[in-house]
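3.2 Worked example (two chains)
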Amino acid sequence: MNYSKTKEFEKDLKRLLKKFSTLEEDLETAKKNSIELLHIHGIDNRGIEQVPKHCSEIVQVCKIKKFSCKALKGKGCQSGVRVIYAFFPNEQKIEFIEIYYKGDKVNMDYDRAKLYLNNL
């Protein structure tokens, strides 16, 4: 699986790293325990859902809802951190679009996802 990040995702991550110092390590864990489990091995642990109206045969926009953040002790996979990414099944490629904390922002930025898809 090939991974990349949008510039906006990099900005989100940099901002959140000030609050949650373990996010980069947590993201690596999520790649193995959620993303690759679902998209490579076909095992659905119900931690990822597709974003409605943002999927096609070429790309699927997905949200990681169960994201463990070590900096949020005692929360486990219900940390409130959400990761939005695009999965390209034919290329086995993941591009991270957005990361946010639900304590700061309730929902994902649907306009950012639409803009991302329009620029493909």
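3.2.1 Second chain
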Amino acid sequence: MALAGIDRHRGSIQLRSGRASYVDTGGEGRAALFVHGLATSSYLWRNVIDQVDGRRRCVAIDLPLHGGTEATPPRDFSLTALAEFVRDCCDALDLADVDLVANDTGGAVAQVFAARHPERLNTLTLTNCETHNNLPPKALWPAVLLARAGLMARMNQRLLADPARARKRIYGGGYQDVRKLPVEIVRAFLEPQAGSAEAARQMQRWLATMNARELLAAEPALRRLEVPTLIVWGTADMFFRTKWAYWLLDTIPGATKVVELPGAKLFFPDERAADLTAALLPHWDAHA
């Protein structure tokens, strides 16, 4: 789906923390709520939404400092604060009993959200994401160290000026064939977090303060989570190895199975949307 196709469904809502951007295809019935991770946005889900629209009301939110959601400083980028941001979006959009689908750091946010608000979920689907103590993942440590040294902000601003280079530098490890990622999507991903010096500094602070404490604190509640949970995992991901999918399966009582996607990398919900949809629809139908 092109940007214009998904943007015709875009709106904004006023939350306690400021204005938030979201995509909502509308329609009757249960909503599917999509949550992205770092350095992407609601655009990550454009191809999945294109395939499942009509089966669900599809809502994809932009986390703070991503997409159309600004992050007015000082901003709390903790997983708990982000989970409460998701809750506030649900309240503002009148979303209840949702089918939650998440990727990357959005998956960590979704775990904390599920631990705190299980009654708001009908089903949960986790794709490659931070899990247990794998936050930040080892492959992200070079970026985290640059952020802690105060060097990431200017680097991201320079990359924004050359989207073709940024595509390879930032997203090359997350796509099987990053050349198919449109440059306009790269620009849309990066502009909110590097389009101004202040945004770049805030993104740098987010990276510099990443840690696993809140994920670990959520584990007792995850071990009691009976919400039907599907785990769909790309097996070639350098950030989140397949062992973490099976850790989730062993940890969450409501987890039904792991669907492995051979060769898929972190951002497969964009690149291999049909494979994710093929797993999602039976999961949703089984818990309709």
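3.3 Remarks
The chain has a mean pLDDT of 96.
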